[in-house]
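Collaborator request, handled under Task 6.
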Amino acid sequence: MRKALNHLKKSDPVMRAMIERIGPFRMQFGPAEFHSLAEAIVYQQLNGKAAETIFSRFAALAGEPLTPQGILKLSDEQMRGAGLSRQKSAYLKDLAAKTASGALDFARLPELPDAEVIAHLTQVKGIGVWTAQMFLIFSLKRENVLPTGDFGVRMAMHKHYLDVAAKKLSAAKKALAAKKGQKKKIKLPTPEQMEKIAKCWEPYRSVACWYLWRSLDTKTL
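Structure tokens returned to the collaborator:
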């Protein structure tokens, strides 16, 4: 990891300042297995506490760690009783069925390149590119993933790279905007802008993204 941090600090002064203020890299990894992906589906579009409650109820019924067999044995009524929506229940059943049939093979994933992992995982209903990228980063420990659809990464890039340039507007322009009652609109970076900013981070874009996420929680930044 020292090699990755040295590269990021040397190639990007903005990232260097972030690393120095945030401190050591401490990403929490999970196992690259069925349970992790099923848990990710349960947590989609839910806040932390609600997701934890629903997941606990669901795991109590299906068994922990989650398995395809444990999920497939549950009825739709049992899954709804745990707090899962009809849509999420369908996603979890599809994940379980494809894994049980061998269409989704977790044992193969560590050997596949990133693009093929994403293609393999997104065959499951409810698994989009973002979820597959999170699996790449946090389960397969891939170091060069740039999730251009991630809100946190986009916000951090806006804050540290784009907003800095916007703040260089002349005082006259700022005064004119204030006089007109104009509110500052946040324009998040496009995927193309993000790729350009992150070019110098390669091959450690995942590591840089962890610092971007952490930067939003760090008051000193």
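The cover message to the collaborator said: "The two ends are 23 Å apart (CA to CA). The mean pLDDT is 90. Please let us know whether this matches your experimental observations."
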